[in-house]
Design a protein that fits this description.
Length: about 325
């Protein structure tokens, strides 16, 4: 009789245990896949910049080596500065010559101004003389010929005034003064400044702290704009590109906290925050869409859920073991604080 009573009780307990286990398992699955989604399809990333000179020339100095860490302002390479030094000297000489010419032209303007004043004075005297003798003609104190000569002298004086004004305008135009500034001087000064910039561009320094990578050149190589000499990995900001399945994307938002595990540093867990979620990925159906990330599927006989890249900025780092671009990672979204 006792066995008959125990068996139903054991059956009910096992059933209750199975239900509780299913609920617990469901809660664990929900937390794992939705409350705290995780992925191991993630990689450490940093921005990289190809450093190219802004002038053309031969590399004369290359004090860096591949994989070297550099700090902002450190010298990366030098383009042969001699042609640009010569160009600077030439521009400076032209500036000095222009200043000498401007001083000569200023003297010419002053001479033209003095000549104009003299011609205007002569014309004023001639006009005054004419006005004085014209009333005397009616009284026969002067002859008509004297009045005619006075009028001729006034006309000639007025003509010389106009000629002097034209000479002054020509001298002022040659001087090149516009709005209180001399255009010829400014043009020569701009040429000197441009030559100084080009000479300064010969020395290329690191724009930020970073790491030299893929250095495949040497002194003697020809370099120029648009052709990077060295690539720098930006050490200021590191992030993880984590590819999450599309059903998890709705549970991830910008600003959420994340935990990052790196197999290369198994004893550490790094904190990060979600910066954003990708809005587009490469269409596996064959459509070509430029400028969007392509996430490869691993199986072609099963319809796999699409994955969208989630950018997670790393808020901390280990100074003893620097991050390396391309390292694999495991990311777990922890949610809001």
């Amino acid at each position: 009789m006792a066995d008959r009573n125990i068996k139903p009780l054991v059956g009910r307990l096992l059933s209750a245990f199975a239900i509780v286990a299913a609920l617990v398992l469901g809660l664990v699955v929900w937390r794992t896949y939705y409350a705290h989604p995780s992925t191991d399809d993630a990689y450490v990333r940093a921005d990289s910049v190809g450093i190219a000179p802004q002038v053309t020339g031969t590399l004369t100095e290359l004090p860096i080596v591949d994989n070297q860490r550099v700090h902002q302002g450190d010298l990366l390479f030098v383009v042969d500065p001699r042609p640009y030094e010569s160009a600077l000297h030439e521009a400076a000489a032209k500036l000095n010559l222009t200043r000498v010419e401007i001083r000569s032209l200023e003297d010419g303007v002053r001479t033209a101004e003095a000549a104009l004043r003299g011609r205007e004075a002569d014309a004023a005297n001639a006009r005054q003389y004419l006005h004085r003798i014209e009333p005397l003609l009616a009284k026969r104190f002067v002859t008509e010929n004297e009045v005619f000569q006075a009028r001729s002298r006034l006309a000639a004086a007025d003509a010389t005034v106009e000629s002097a004004r034209a000479d002054l305008a020509k001298a002022q135009s040659s001087l090149g003064d516009i709005g209180g500034a001399n255009a010829r001087i400014e043009d020569a000064e701009a040429a000197v400044e441009h030559a100084q910039l080009n000479l300064g561009y010969c020395r290329v320094v690191a724009p930020f702290d970073g790491y030299v990578t893929n250095l495949n050149t040497a002194v003697g190589q020809m370099a120029g704009p648009g052709h990077p000499v060295v690539t720098l990995i930006d050490d200021r900001t590191w992030y993880v590109m984590a590819n999450f399945r599309e059903e998890f994307v709705g549970h991830i938002e910008s600003g959420m906290q994340a935990e990052v595990f790196l197999p290369s540093q198994p004893d550490r867990r790094f904190k990060g925050r979600v910066q954003g979620i990708g809005w587009a990925v490469f269409d596996q159906s064959g459509a070509d869409l430029e400028g969007v990330p392509k996430v490869e599927a691993t199986l072609n006989w099963v319809r796999l859920a699409q994955r969208f890249p989630v950018r997670i900025v790393l808020d901390e780092r280990d100074g003893t073991f620097p991050f390396r671009m391309g390292a694999t990672a495991v990311v777990t979204i922890k949610g809001r604080r």
